[in-house]
Amino acid sequence: MTATIDPDVLARYGSRNIPRYTSYPTAPHFRPAPDIGLYREWLAAVPADEPVSLYVHVPFCRAMCWYCGCHTSVTHRDAPIDRYLHALRSELAAVAAALPGRVPVQHLHFGGGTPTLMEPDGFRRLMGQLRAAFNFRTDAEVAIEIDPRTLEQPMIEALAAGGVNRASLGVQSFDLKVQQAINRVQSFEITRDAVKGLRRHGIDQLNFDLIYGLPHQSVESCIDTLRQAVSLRPDRLAVFGYAHVPGFKPHQRKIDESTLGRAAERLAQAEAIARALIYAGYVPIGLDHFALPGDPLTLAAARGQLRRNFQGYTTDACTTLLGFGASAIGRVPDGFVQNAVLIPDYEKRIRDSGLALARHCPTDGEDRRRGALIEQLMCQYRADLSGAGDLVDETKLEPLVSDGIIRRKGSVIEVRPEARPLVRAVAAAFDAYLDEGAGRHASAV
After folding, report:
1. What are the pLDDT digits (tens) for 92-111?
2. Among 80, 218, 227, 409, whose CB has the most other CB atoms within 10 angstroms?
3. In whole angstroms, what is the distance from residue 276 CA to residue 421 CA?
């Protein structure tokens, strides 16, 4: 008989507000940066010969999806995007000038918003500047997030010409009732045509994003969406639980909370999706990702080399991440940095100094050790506490053991298979900064 988690335990832990742990410390604990000179000093300390990752944020959409937790804004005109891209190119030049040289790049990710709202020529120009400023490795991954509803042929051609080799398509749900409740109507046919167009131009490493826990969702509607998505055979699927934080994202107030499922319903949806994906031949990766058996993500997980960053589970092992654009977060040897969130503020800071640093989080040895333990748990569902005695709070671990969430074998703690959906609650036991009452985190399930 397959073990199951006690419903009372699930309800108690699953309703806790806990970070997704794509970084440690997490972004709510960043604080105002003292001056722009600090960032230049931190950039100068980046090792010149170690590969880095780049993240470019394009915070524009044609319409607001009410579930969205990203920093983005709606525009029906191209002028604001063009003005923003001008600032983005200026920031790129300033960061490149502050680095110790033309550093190598292993990963580049365009996020949003909808990065493909750029005009094709604007994307070509930006991609050309990136390749001139950095030394892209021949096997570098160049990825971009796409809203299939706005993707057109000229942009597909520009992506291919720019060297994009991985695309992440937002799907969320194919259930029309759910789509209407989240203000995102997107047919299967639109998604299918985007997939065909990308593959036809050689962009054949494809990810789909799905969400469970949306208004009106049921196990049946989740499985129907999954059946359609799998018919297109994406290489990876990220299956996220909807994070309802209307105090932090006011547009989420347009969602009727009475239509949202509770922890047990959300877990049932997540488990049904996982079972169906495994049956379809996908391998579960960490908390919420699935990949085909030969995918690099699957191979990294099998080798114990899976990593976690702001894009979720990844093969990206770079220790330096350079973020560009409004709200973008970066990681350098001395800590985390984040640009101004609001677009006008970002553009003004770029005009004034070339850089847009607004918040930062210096990290010390303890932060890095705690972060490593949390990443072990999030990626492998286990962590070795040998040598970490000063980081262990037994009053936090003992309830996890007695409630059947983790088991201890010597210095190793391991999340029980049936309790893996609660892994974030285990990671939280090592978070020295966590404030669950802040209202900025989603429920643990």
Report:
1. 999 999 999 999 999 999 99
2. 218
3. 16
